[in-house]
Amino acid sequence: MPSYPFHTTREDVRIPLPDGTELAARVWRPVSDEPVPALLEYSADRLGDRTAAEDARRHPWYAGHGYAAVRVDTRGHGNSGGLPGEPGDEQELTDGAAVIDWLAHRSWCNGRVGLLGVGAAGTTALRLAARVPDTVGAAVTACPQGGHRLGGAVLAADLHARLTALIADAALPPDPRQLGDAWRPTWLARLESLEPPVEAWLAAGDTTVPVSVPVLAVAGWGDPSCSFVLRLLAESPTARALLGPWPHGLPEAALPETLRWWDHWLRGVDTGAVKEPALRSWISTRWTGDEAWPSPDVREIHYDLDGQLRTAGTASDDRYVHVRSPQHTGLNAGAYVPHGRPADQPPDQREEDGRSVCFDSLPLPEPVELLGIPVARLRLRSGESPVQVVARLCAVGPDGTSALLTRGVLTTTGPDAEVELAACAATVPAGHRLRLALSSVYWPWVWPPADDSGYALDPSHSVLSLPVRHLAADVGARPVTFEAPSLPDPLAVHVTEPLTARPEHITVHDIGRHEWRTELSPATDGTRTHPDGLVRDEHTVTAYRILTGAPLSAQARTDHTVRLERPDLGWDVTVQTRTQLRCDAGHFISVMQLRALEAGSVVFTREWQHRVARES
Q1: Cβ atoms 346, 406 nearer than 8 A
Q2: Among 13, 132, 290, 336, which is disulfide-ready with 295 (CB 3.0 to 4.6 Å)?
Q3: How does pLDDT run across 311-326, given as a tens digit for each residue?
Q4: Which of 62, 235, 177 is nearest to 569 (CA)?
Q5: Alpha helices by DSSP H, 172-277
Q6: Mean per-residue pLDDT for 388-398?
Q7: Averaged over 117-123, what is the pLDDT?
Q8: Would you give the distance in Å from CA 111 to the centre of its chain?
Q9: Is there a contact between 380 and 458 (Cβ–Cβ < 8 Å)?
């Protein structure tokens, strides 16, 4: 264990809510005679097993630096009481506000609370801060999770898989070592209460998140949260952001910056945290800093689609270019949420470019540095049916290699379509060409429109606007550097890999059937034995299929199995979930199945069927 300013203690406690429900919490505290600020991480991700390894690294580190670091399971999850709800719903926020009040009134807390959250919990942290801004002094949000649509199109990637994981996590029982014999009736009550939020997730919904306290936002380039992070910076004068070369999550490299943030806002220590650039970002090979966002060093450069960018597809007798892509366009998109594995990254885009209409620049005479949110402003031929406009920005090397920089989707009826691409940071070398590739589908990221006739584009009234950062922006600027944290030793979790591990990402083309099938397996697969004897075995397969010329053939399915064991107690439970999603011309059709087993015997089964009207 590294040496820290404070010795620490760890305690498992139960936090009472006003309705009598108790939430499971783990508290790491510094050994101190003085009350200290509290840092709350409030999540549905089961502190007893799923997040135990991460918790055991960062929370003792925070405690060693003088904070009461508190990890709390939300209602109906892990060892907490009550029945589960949807992440971020009104009950979860009400409970969270009560937890903050409870913490602020502990004898070991000085009344100041900071909030920490990753993914969906990162979004919840911001919403909670808006509930009790007088108590919450600051927040750190990592990769905050957004809605279930992309430019108005319903997500296919991640949506049904996330739904499956949501139900599976809520269906898992509490630990008998913590709850004794009460674990079983608690588990059965949870199972009976479950209702998948399919209708709510398929609806457009409101994805706005209030920012009411100083926020440090952290994300990795390529994570879907990056655009939200830049908007947060633009809207909040007290916000700061780190966007780096990281996968989804809170990287350990960022922990010292979060500590500087807490020290400034919760202790009043001048750590220089607010003097740092508003945005510190990794651009291709180096860290850069921009003092404000929007940055005065970034300007919008326009590329006309019949000028600086050109395509070979313009017909001589018609100013319109027709864009109609095969339904499997998008198979080389890479992971929607990157988790740091090789298959997460999108491969060479030449196959995708061949299924798209491409507008290329001449070779660049000097490097172009991009930082921000590109926008494609396109003029379409008006139509009655909504169309799906997909824009990809690529850098094409002298050898023809096409590297994806960013992409965006818009569902529209035209005629003016403004496609906002995801925030990006990249240096395109001299001699490379910029390529805007347009397609009419992007499967399996988003569900294809029922009508596959595509759309007609007028290049003479269309433009690509790029956020170009001045190449001399860093001249004379203070270098951006980070201190490496000295964290506790990793939790001694023994990982047993599957004997026949599935590929991370595999695609099969059935030529005779004109069918494309893709299967994904997450990094969480395998068996993990925790130091206290708890065994968690997890296996997941997500599959997509589509026929080349049939948009209504699209189908998505996730099979997810989690088994929990305590061999010393003879405790053995399994939760199996399956979600299947498809669509016809007017509806999404969802079938979700759940089975729960105890010692191999089925104790609960249920199937939910939903038919939800589609908007496009």
Answers
A1: no
A2: 290
A3: 865 554 578 999 999 9
A4: 177
A5: 176-179, 183-193, 198-202, 226-235, 255-262
A6: 98
A7: 95
A8: 31
A9: yes
CA–CA distance, 292 with 294 (Å, rounded to integer): 6
Query: In this predicted structure, what is the pLDDT of residue 312?
Result: 65
Cβ neighbors of 556 (< 8 A, separation 6 or more) are 156, 160, 444, 542, 543, 544, 580, 581, 582
pLDDT tens by residue, 31-88? 999 999 999 999 999 999 999 999 999 999 999 999 999 999 999 999 999 999 988 8
How far apart CA 594 and CA 194 sit, in angstroms, is 10
* Furthest CA-CA distance within the chain: 83
The length of the chain in residues reads 616
Which of 310, 408, 426, 308 has the alpha carbon at shortest distance from 368?
A: 426
Report yes or no: 41 and 26 within 8 Å, Cβ to Cβ: no
User: Who contacts 225 (Cβ-Cβ below 8 Å, separation ≥6)?
Assistant: 122, 143, 144, 145, 146, 219
C-alpha to C-alpha distance for 101 and 113, rounded to whole angstroms: 9
Separation of alpha carbons 564 and 355, rounded Å: 45
Specify the residue for token string 């997941």.
540
Q: What are phi and psi of 234, to 5 degrees?
A: -65, -30
| The pLDDT of residue 317 | 56
Q: How far apart are CA 484 and CA 127, in angstroms?
A: 30
Say if residues 442 and 407 touch (Cβ distance below 8 Å).
Answer: yes
Please state whether beta strands 526-529 and 535-547 pair in parallel, antiparallel, or not at all (unpaired). antiparallel
Residue 600's CB is within 10 A of a number of other CB atoms, namely 8
Tell whether pTM > 0.70: yes
**What is the per-residue pLDDT for 614?**
86
Of 541, 562, 282, 520, residue with least CA distance to 423: 282
Phi-psi sector, 166: left (phi>0), alpha (psi -120 to 50), beta: alpha
What is d(CA 154, CA 378) in angstroms, rounded to the nearest whole number?
Answer: 21
Q: Are 2 and 486 in contact (CB under 8 A)?
A: yes
Q: Cα 327–374–428 angle (5° rounding)?
A: 95
Query: Mind listing the pLDDT tens digit for each residue in 510-542?
Result: 999 999 999 988 777 889 999 999 999 999 999
Q: Which range has the worst mean pLDDT, 14-18, 23-27, 462-466, 499-503?
A: 499-503
Q: What is the DSSP letter of 178?
A: H
Quote the mean pLDDT of the chain. 93
- A 10 A CB-CB count for 343 gives 16
Tell me the backbone φ, ψ of residue 106, rounded to 5 degrees: -75, 150
Token pair for residue 49? 């097993």
Find out whether the peptide bond into 448 is cis, omega within 30 degrees of 0.
Answer: no
Q: Classify strands 505-510 and 387-396 as parallel, antiparallel or unpaired.
A: unpaired
pLDDT digits (tens, 9 = 90+) for 418-441: 999 999 999 999 999 999 999 999
Cα atoms in the 13 Å half-sphere on the side-chain side of 552 = 11
- 279-283/240-244 β-pairing: parallel
Beta strands, E only, 64-162: 68-73, 109-118, 136-142, 149-150, 153-154
DSSP class of 171:
H
Specify the amino acid at residue 295: S
